């Protein structure tokens, strides 16, 4: 067998080795996280429930989910061990990292639309302007425009008359077409 035929198999085996190696590292990190759990630390289960660790056994964890509610979970069901700040932020809504000097995003846009007193208001309305000619006699171009306007008015009157005729009662037939 030549090297060219074996090359795809070698690349495939190498890729599989790299993928399983990274997955194995992730599994080891998760197992280490679960083994480092101590009573009093906050956790999130794989189902999304937040609780406080009460007791850690070899394969199970007893957690306190609320007053008088103790739950027993398998260690594999623990999705993450949270830091105290993160647990308090999520469960109790306590924020420790807020800076008092930082800008706060408003709940509505009203503060974004306020204007200063010095700003000019902009009128976006359409203004009607009428151009008045100072000449007493119309020029040839003005006369031609007037003639075109009269012709257009006559055409629209004809179209309106045709539309009025078609609005009348349509001609009834018994289904036979006359064009054969």
TrEMBL record:
<dbReference type="Pfam" id="PF02699">
    <property type="entry name" value="YajC"/>
</dbReference>
<feature type="region of interest" description="Disordered">
    <location>
        <begin position="100"/>
        <end position="180"/>
    </location>
</feature>
<keyword id="KW-0812">Transmembrane</keyword>
<comment type="similarity">
    <text>Belongs to the YajC family.</text>
</comment>
<keyword id="KW-0653">Protein transport</keyword>
<keyword id="KW-0811">Translocation</keyword>
<protein>
    <submittedName>
        <fullName>Secreted protein</fullName>
    </submittedName>
</protein>
<feature type="compositionally biased region" description="Basic and acidic residues">
    <location>
        <begin position="147"/>
        <end position="180"/>
    </location>
</feature>
<keyword id="KW-0813">Transport</keyword>
<dbReference type="GO" id="GO:0015031">
    <property type="term" value="P:protein transport"/>
</dbReference>
<dbReference type="GO" id="GO:0005886">
    <property type="term" value="C:plasma membrane"/>
</dbReference>
<dbReference type="InterPro" id="IPR003849">
    <property type="entry name" value="Preprotein_translocase_YajC"/>
</dbReference>
<keyword id="KW-1003">Cell membrane</keyword>
<keyword id="KW-0472">Membrane</keyword>
<keyword id="KW-1133">Transmembrane helix</keyword>
<feature type="compositionally biased region" description="Basic and acidic residues">
    <location>
        <begin position="117"/>
        <end position="130"/>
    </location>
</feature>
């Amino acid at each position: 067998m030549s090297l060219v035929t074996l090359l795809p198999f070698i690349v495939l085996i190498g890729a599989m080795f790299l993928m399983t190696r990274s997955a194995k590292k992730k599994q080891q990190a998760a197992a280490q996280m679960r083994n480092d759990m101590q009573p009093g630390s906050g956790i999130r289960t794989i189902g999304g429930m937040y609780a406080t660790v009460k007791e850690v056994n070899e394969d199970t964890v007893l957690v306190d989910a609320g007053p008088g509610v103790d739950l027993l979970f398998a260690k594999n069901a623990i999705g993450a061990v949270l830091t105290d700040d993160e647990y308090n932020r999520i469960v109790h809504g306590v924020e420790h990292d807020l800076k008092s000097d930082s800008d706060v995003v408003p709940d509505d846009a009203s503060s974004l639309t306020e204007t200063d007193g010095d700003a000019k208001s902009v009128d976006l309305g359409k203004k009607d302007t009428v151009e008045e000619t100072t000449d007493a006699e119309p020029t040839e171009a003005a006369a031609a425009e007037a003639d075109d306007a009269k012709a257009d008015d006559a055409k629209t009157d004809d179209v309106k008359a045709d539309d009025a005729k078609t609005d009348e009662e349509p001609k009834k037939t018994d289904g036979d077409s006359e064009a054969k």
